[in-house]
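User: You have something folded?
Assistant:
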Amino acid sequence: MGRERALSIGQEALWFLYRMAPDSPAYNVQAALRVRGALDETRLRRALRAVVERHDVLRSTFTETAAGPRRVIGLPDLVALQVREVPGVTDTGLLEKHVKAFGDTPFDLTGEGTCRALLLRVAPDDHVIVVSTHHIVTDATSQWLLLQDLLDAYASDTAPPPLARGYDDYVQGEQELLAGPRREQLLAFWKEFCANATAGELPADRPRSPRPPAVFNGATCEARIPDELVPRLREAAKRAKVTPFALTLGVFQALVHRYGGARDFLVGCPTTTRSGPGMREVVGYLVNTLVLPAHFTDTTTFGQAAHTAQRQVMRAMKHIGYPYALLAGDEPYSSRNPPVRMVFTMVAPGRLEPLLMQVTEAAAHGTDTEYAGLRVELIEVPQLEGQFDINVEMRQSATSLTAVFRYATDLFDESTVRRLLDSYVRLLAEAVEDPDAPVAGAALVEADDLDDLLALGEATDW
């Protein structure tokens, strides 16, 4: 077998988006850790090389061929560790700026490749390790598996064992599915499942441009759900016999209904496709977006919205094999009417991601943790901004829950998204307090805020 590899359907879509906006960092994924204590740079370089050797997607470039786009596997030294001295920059906020600047640098997928690694040296016993990767070869889980592999290889100073399966196996499985009779069965399901609904939208501050953007511009607002509400939310979900994800999704759909006014609409849910023997340790783009229909009436309650969300997720999961990019029809990548314009997901570290689980929980308490003999601390920076109108990520730890709203700045002002986020937290509290309350009757803003908004329209202002 040569060095050229076929792409998955999801990768083909990302390749199209990259060629449409090559200078955009919207599809750059990064993970960063602050490491306290002495760090052997030479040993770290060996560990990086071993990890890049293990996951060939990290040492790949992309090209167009007569047979279509292809991934070209390169040598391990395609990914070199960059080192920058930042003496005395101990403030976390300033370090976050360095990390974000590194992560926001566009990739040249045709020449440079798909992955970069950086070591920021603050002091002999204080460093930041950053790994930035293009989404075409990674996802949220993969990014943390990559960093976990790197620290494990550093700790043992030995190369990790070769993978039993790789990303090519995933691509082959997808090709076989789409070449068989199951393809038409899946397509028929999605057509029926999404019938009579269009992509949900929220009132924007500016009209949508008819032309594709040269750069996907975005920003982020986030809010930590009040700590006292988190256990009550989990208990409310348990009593209702739904998952916390279904409850939070149902409330988001309620928010879209209340602000946008539509009764029937679609919202996306990026979901892992990391299934099957040997795939849990694979780094790659292993995500598909489920398209979930929502339906509201004047009497729909928060509890009903959560139950509907859970039922729709369960139905959709049985048909996850059909790639989202194919749902847009004959022009799957260039359609100006995509199946969804907003997505909602929850990041909840599991046992297979001990590094992410540890640093997330430590971050919730404002501290660091020990992993592979090193004291490590999460450095979180905004990323993946501008891909959708609104991209909601619920970050969950054992004791905390944070709502992250990424948004397209071509459409929305920060004040608008902040108001949406505040309304979401308010609706979440109301859903927990009274799941039988009608969505239509819930207040979206506090009474004082409502008075301020009404005052904007008083006759004395004219």
Residues 453-462 have pLDDT under 50 and may be disordered. The first helix runs from residue 9 to 20.
